[in-house]
Design brief:
Keywords: Aminotransferase, Pyridoxal phosphate, Transferase. By secondary structure, this protein is an all-alpha fold. The protein has five helices and two strands. Strand 1 and strand 2 form a beta hairpin.
Length: about 140
């Protein structure tokens, strides 16, 4: 989708309107889907407190406010601030010239071995007896 946006403020206004529209559509769809769902009798939980911090920040008119919610750190101009440690990690990863292949279902053997030693100790009988496994969900990294 092409956008005719020339500056950052226009882009943000467009993005804000898009998000409001998307949220309205998504919310009504969720309510409809929930009402006809097997889980419709389950009471809705409370709003996410962490995301609520960002919402409170947006509503606050104090010019000295600081956003402590989830997301990117920001500088005094509201632009994302990338920590030097993150830049260094990116640089190290980029310099390895990795092939971008997915790991096998068993993961990266060296990483798994080192993680097990970190978690259980170098001389763990559990590692020696091959009684250790790791699990993670797909979007972990």
């Amino acid at each position: 989708m092409a956008m005719g946006v020339r500056d950052g403020d226009s882009a943000m206004r467009f993005f804000d309107h898009f998000i409001m529209f998307r949220n309205a559509v998504t919310s009504s769809w969720k309510i409809t889907a929930r009402a006809s769902s097997f889980w419709s009798h389950v009471k809705m939980g409370p709003p996410d407190a962490i995301l609520g911090i960002t919402e409170a920040y947006k509503k606050d008119s104090n010019p000295n406010k600081v956003n402590l919610g989830a997301g990117a750190y920001r500088d005094d101009n509201g632009k994302p601030f990338v920590l030097p440690s993150v830049k260094e990690a990116e640089s190290r990863m980029f310099s390895r010239n990795m092939d971008k292949e997915y790991a096998s279902i068993a993961g990266i053997a060296e990483f798994c071995d080192l993680a097990a030693k970190l978690a259980f100790g170098n001389d763990s009988k559990h590692i020696e007896q091959k009684c250790v496994c790791f699990s993670s969900y797909d979007a972990a990294f």
